[in-house]
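Reopening: structure tokens for the biotin complex, inputs below.
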Amino acid sequence: EALISNNAIGQQIVYFDSIDSTNSYAKKEANKLKDGTVILSEEQLLGRGRRGRNWSSPKGTGIWMSLVLKPNIPPTEGVKMTQIAAAAVCKSIRELTGLNALIKWPNDIVINGKKICGILTEMAGELNEVNYIIVGIGINVNTDGFSCELKEKATSLFIEGGKKIDRRELVVNILKNFEALYNIYIKDLNLDETLVIVKNYSAILGKEIKIIQGNLEKKARAIDINNEGLLLVQMDDGSKELISSGEVSIRGE
Ligand code: BTN
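Re-run output (same inputs, fresh job):
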């Protein structure tokens, strides 16, 4: 059956000067927020990353935002939202800056091997009720430097391109790209359009990667991203495996 969402992404925007975390706010208030609401903050005091990490979100330098989505889809579909968001952000960065942004499956955007954006998709809702999907997007936009511990791994659009970027313009562009891909997806749960982008701009397809899951570290070659948004890898012994979560890092980098 067709699953329609009539609400445009970003028709309602909730804007904060400062907040703990736009994702936390979205989760807390999900009941009251309309489908498609976008939460933005100039800074986050407790920005959250994946795996309980914190996400540095200094004032006025980045895009810290959460999309509140209430599609009528099974909770298992939620993971695909990360792919849609990654495709939208990557496309927007390329369109507006010309920088060679790549998607490091499942949820990072990198430029020159360093992280520029992270995505944290979370579900909220009661029991088996239709879940709210919160897509948190953090982008280092005009950051001019990072702390020692981040310097090796993180970068910003300003550092890479040497130009300050209009954050508002970038947000608008991302929402436009996200909405286009999301609407195609939601019509018949078809991820094709997103996959074209995700594969085209993949930082890892065809490459030797390390898959780190807990204490386990496996070497493999990334060969495809399937229409569930899962990563297909080939192990050294030739066997293939589908990877659904876990930390993926590129060997040699
Ligand atoms: C990651 O790479 O680990 C994901 C980082 C996600 C950061 C964004 S910033 C907006 C939203 N609010 C949060 O607290 N986190 C996400």
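The mean pLDDT is 91. The CA atoms of residues 195 and 227 lie 7 Å apart. Marking as resolved unless the reporter disagrees.
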